[in-house]
Amino acid sequence: MDYSSWVDTSLDLNISSIRVKSEAPVDAGRSGMAKELKPTFMDFQTKPSSKEETGALVEELNRVGEENRKLTEMLTVMCESYNVLRGQLMDYMSKNGEKDRLAPSKKRKSESSHNNNNNNIAMNGNSESSSTDEESSKKPREEIIKDKISKAYVRTEAGDTSLTVKDGYQWRKYGQKVTRDNPCPRAYFKCSFAPSCPVKKKVQRSIDDQSVLVATYEGEHNHPHPSMEATPGSNRSLTLGSVPCTASLASSGPTITLDLTKPKSSNDDKSSKPRTDTPEVQKFLVEQMASSLTKDPNFTAALVAAISGRMFQQNNSEKW
DNA sequence: CGGCTTTGACCAGCGC
DNA sequence: GCGCTGGTCAAAGCCG
Predict the structure, then answer these.
(1) Low complexity compositional bias: what residue ranges (predicted)?
(2) Is the Cα dihedral A197, A239, A163, A235 positive or negative?
(3) Nearest nucleic acid nucleotide to A108, CA to C1' distance
């Protein structure tokens, strides 16, 4: 089930149509409904409404309202499916984690095995962090760090060319490279919040969708999340482990970026699963999603338009 | 002036 | 062994 692409198209319909109404730039070709609505709203703004136009508008509004209702239901289904998939994923990872940890000794081969693992399950975080203490004690520290790899997908503004992912941590860029498989340059970051923090981050635009930044985190922060200390509430991140857990919603479509990072092994050796299935975490995730929605100007505009549409509809039904 | 970014050079792993 | 590639270093420049 590919819910991400499904939501991307579906939810964008309303957002784009609202943009038309507010005369904001429209992503060309993204939404057939936007094209359909554009003349309707423009006519409404330039000409006094006739009965036919009003009827068409009412019909359109009813259709949009119905679509909003469907989208709400779809979102609910998607969240439920996500929870089910997450549970299945955790079961799978706990069963197959042993195999995945058998990485070759060579550096690049081990990385490619990590990447394959992460590509298959993009929302998964440190799957290998569940390694036993015996294995951890055998490995050099650097290899242990490299095992803590996770990916995060962050959608950015269309015109945003910077390779920055705001996750609450302080990063210092130490390199940039154009890789063979992706014409977009890859940026290399080190955590600069704490001098001894070994965490590195690679950020590169997705080859499929260049508005999406793919951030690959390596290692585990040995310091608290900066936002927890300095600027609480300054970002949208939740730290569950080595890397932040983010739920982001951007203008061109919702990108739910989840990083099911396992808790630090030093603190949670007893539990092999991350605590993402607890009611508290689920509640927080829902709040994060809701917060992301309300912070998104397009969603706000869509909401305002929907409400005003309803009011307009009511006014019309009173007048006519 | 200190911290950060940029960018070319360098190094090491990997495949042939 | 050699070339390709990804990752890192470090000097120079920029900026607040």
Answers:
(1) 113-130
(2) negative
(3) B13
Angle between helix A279-295 and helix A297-319 axes, rounded to 10 deg: 70
A242 near A220, Cβ under 8 Å? yes
**pLDDT at A216 > cutoff 50:** yes
Q: Measured in angstroms, what separates residue A179's CA from nucleotide C2's C1'?
A: 21
In this complex, the nucleotide whose C1' atom is nearest to the CA atom of residue A107 is B13
For residue A264, pLDDT over 50 is answered with no
Give me the sign of the Cα torsion angle A173, A213, A149, A248.
Answer: positive
A107-CA/C5-C1' distance, Å: 14
| A177 CB closer than 7 A to any strand C atom | yes
Angle at A80 between CA A76 and CA A84, to 5 degrees: 165
CA atoms within 13 A on the CB side of A147: 25
Measured to protein CB atoms, the chain B nucleotides within 7 Å are 3-9, 12-15
Digit-coded pLDDT (tens) for A108-144: 443 333 433 333 333 333 333 333 333 333 333 334 4
Q: How far is the C-alpha of A95 from the C-alpha of A264, rounded, in Å?
A: 20
Token pair recorded at residue A61: 């509004």
Whose CB is within 7 A of strand B?
A: A 104, 106-110, 170-177, 187, 192
Q: Are A212 and A206 in contact (CB under 8 A)?
A: yes
A183 touches strand C (CB under 7 A): no
